[in-house]
């Protein structure tokens, strides 16, 4: 019983000693590991005031593999440092990866700044070549010779014949006065009456050959034949046989369609690029592979307040009568603005705050460059005002992926495999060894 009581304190002392020894050994081991890790941190990382930067740089140095040329260029003290945009770093993309992600390139070129205003229009007749046909006396239509719209006629073609009491009496008056003037001096007013009757027939638009035939026939014609004043196409016909007509009745509308107009609408912001005499390219759906050339002949002085557009009139030849009235037309008004640097629109990344282009340098180094571009588009190209030079090679496709990688690198994130600027086989070997 005494032995048992004396054994308990000894046991408790031994357990306490073992616990203290284990605690002390763990503290020493942790202190030794921290000391060894601190010895591996570079001096430039130890002197940094930013704690997060120290850890990142130390971690990158300790890993070794995977450090990109872009990161090396961004690190202080590196002699190969490359100036870049805030929030971006240059990156190197291996040729194999360029093919995999479909990168294409474009070259900045010095070329003509050909501005094109694209709009739509409708083919209309040339209003200066339109003729409305009226008759200057009241009567009744006897016969219609041109009886449908769309018919092409020549100048002098008979249109219709009418019976007019006024026309009939004017013929009789002319015949009587002419006969009286031929009797001799005793009919002192015969010549004046004949001249007055002749003038009346001329004012009724009776042609000279009809008057000559009347003199030879010496008998009034019952019907007056109305003839076309111009060569062209009948656009409208509004009369029928037996219908009574008056001088205010429009009988026909005839147009010479060898020259037509295209009426187009242009927005107000495009007006500085539209001038009288400019060349215009016209295309119509009926002839998709053919183009027609015209010129601007009129710009409306008033602007439509609702649509913010104004009318532009384009004149073009239509000798073969291919363009029909009412056709829709695609219009391109060309405006040459000198020469300038041009780059494809797909090469420019517009993020809302700045326009960025990735310029391709030696060893597949893609450098982000801020550019200033003109607000005017020249087809599918931008006019570069600042940031690039003629002959620069730039990324034209997959540039959003390059942009994301550059920003990710600038923020200290992990990079995509193949964009480290190192041989991919080496990276693979390093990864296998790490595993």
CATH topology of the largest domain: conserved putative lor/sdh protein from methanococcus maripaludis s2 fold
Average pLDDT confidence is 79
Going by helix content, strand content and strand pairing, the class is: alpha+beta
Tell me the distance between the termini: 62 Å
Number of strands: 21
Describe the largest sheet: 6 strands, antiparallel, barrel
Biggest sheet: strand arrangement: 3-12-15-14-13-16
- CATH level 1 name of the largest domain: Mainly Beta
State which percent range the strand residues make up.
25-35%
As residue ranges, the low-confidence spans are: 33-83, 421-435
Per the principal axes of the C-alpha atoms, what is the gross shape? rod-shaped
Q: How large, in whole angstroms, is the Cα Rg? A: 47 Å
Percent helix among the residues?
25-40%
Number of helices: 10
Topology (elements, then pairings):
Layout: H1 2-39, H2 43-46, H3 51-63, H4 69-74, E1 91-92, H5 95-101, E2 105-107, E3 109-125, E4 130-133, E5 139-144, E6 152-153, E7 158-163, H6 165-181, H7 190-203, H8 208-217, E8 224-227, E9 232-237, E10 244-245, E11 252-255, E12 259-267, E13 279-284, E14 287-299, E15 309-317, E16 328-344, E17 349-350, E18 355-360, E19 365-378, E20 381-386, E21 393-395, H9 399-410, H10 424-434
Antiparallel strand pairs: 1-19, 2-21, 3-12, 3-16, 4-11, 5-7, 5-10, 6-9, 7-8, 9-11, 12-15, 13-14, 13-16, 14-15, 16-20, 17-18, 18-19, 19-20
